Amino acid sequence: MNAPWKANAAGARDPFHAFVCDDLTLDTIRGVCDEMGWSQEKANKGGLRNAIQSLSVAASPQILMVDLSESGDPINDINALAEVCEPGTIVIALGQVNDVRLYRDLLLSGLQDYLLKPLNPDAVRDAIAQAQAALMAPKEDGTGDKPHVSIGVVGTRGGVGASTIATSLAWTLSDRLEHTTGLLDLDVHFGTGALAMDLEPGRGLTDAIDNPSRIDGLFIERAMIKANDKLSILSAEAPMTSPVMSDGAAFFQLQEELRAAFENTVIDIPRSMLISYPHLAHDLNVMVVVTELTLAAARDTIRVLAWAKSNAPHCKVIVVANKVSNASLEISRKDFEATIESKIDQVIPADPKATAQAAKLGRPVVDAVKGSKVSSAISTLADNILSSAIEEAEEEDGEEGGKKKKSVMDGFKAILSKKSD
Ligand SMILES: Nc1ncnc2c1ncn2[C@@H]1O[C@H](COP(=O)(O)OP(=O)(O)O)[C@@H](O)[C@H]1O
Ligand SMILES: [Mg+2]
Question: DSSP letter string over 388-403?
Fold first, then answer.
């Protein structure tokens, strides 16, 4: 969800306002206001509802404290507050419900903090100090505590369906799971990311490769093409006369900016690009290796998996066998698994009817032919990818015990809980 107050645009506004429900809380906050040199009038009685009313007609303060005690549906009310709150406002909530789930959901909806009542003046001071630090911080990279999952999709051979899966995956993440998602199609000459959604690729990706220094948040906003409310794509149909001339800086920069701008990134990576730009895999959380069940593909799956092991050891690898039909198995699943010395994590059946229909409609197969087995398999794949991201975060959490990692993990879990909606 968009959280307008996460944006950083603190102009000349009132530094602070509080809307609280009871006298004790009011006294505590007024005490802290005194210490800060703010007028006591900045703290008023009246909870969330008053805050919404007052902000709909007046300028938002830099730091807003709201008491949720009288709110029956805090998340919903916080979203209503977001509608009237100007970008740049940092919101700290107060409440008497000690519930980790609520806390996590509130943070995910963009709140800075949630303080439990009765308030401890030290906690109030701390929260305000942190809010001020956030206001002073240079332009936020947009990631904050927001979980980001970066997914690379690599085909072991041409035509195995990697791009089909990448576009449908991006569609599922953005549409069913409602994550803001950026799809980066690195098949610079022959990419189908835009084509698959009946869009013109534009010059964005070509410009990015030619001028990596121009790549920033604004560039991403302008260059990417909207495929749905939450999905933007960057793709190209570069002329066959221009080889990709890049030292890789553009790809690195693009990944950075996509990470800041979206909750998920899906990168369609032709295997040849991995050879030229191995660092493409460095920032991936998950690498989806798409293969067919053929002998040649078995050989190349072995090679891609070995490559991933040495070049992206941190990355969770998911092996997907696509276009699987019982009719024409060159090699059985069992033999394939024995050959590659690894399990196939997911099988996607061959369904030429569904993919042809999708191509004709210019829509990803998960959208065009929702009930097909291909679509449900790709949908399951999306869920599994996010689960793997949790596992990865948990493992890292175990290793480092970092607080930050933990909140990222919570974010993943919240995302997963959405999938049942
Ligand atoms: N599960 C499937 N069943 C049948 N055809 C498929 C399936 N997945 C992909 N295809 C088709 O295979 C062709 C190649 O797919 P594409 O995604 O472009 O492969 P890649 O990116 O690996 O080269 C496309 O025509 C696509 O519609
Ligand atoms: Mg492709």
Answer: HHHHHHHHHHHHH--H
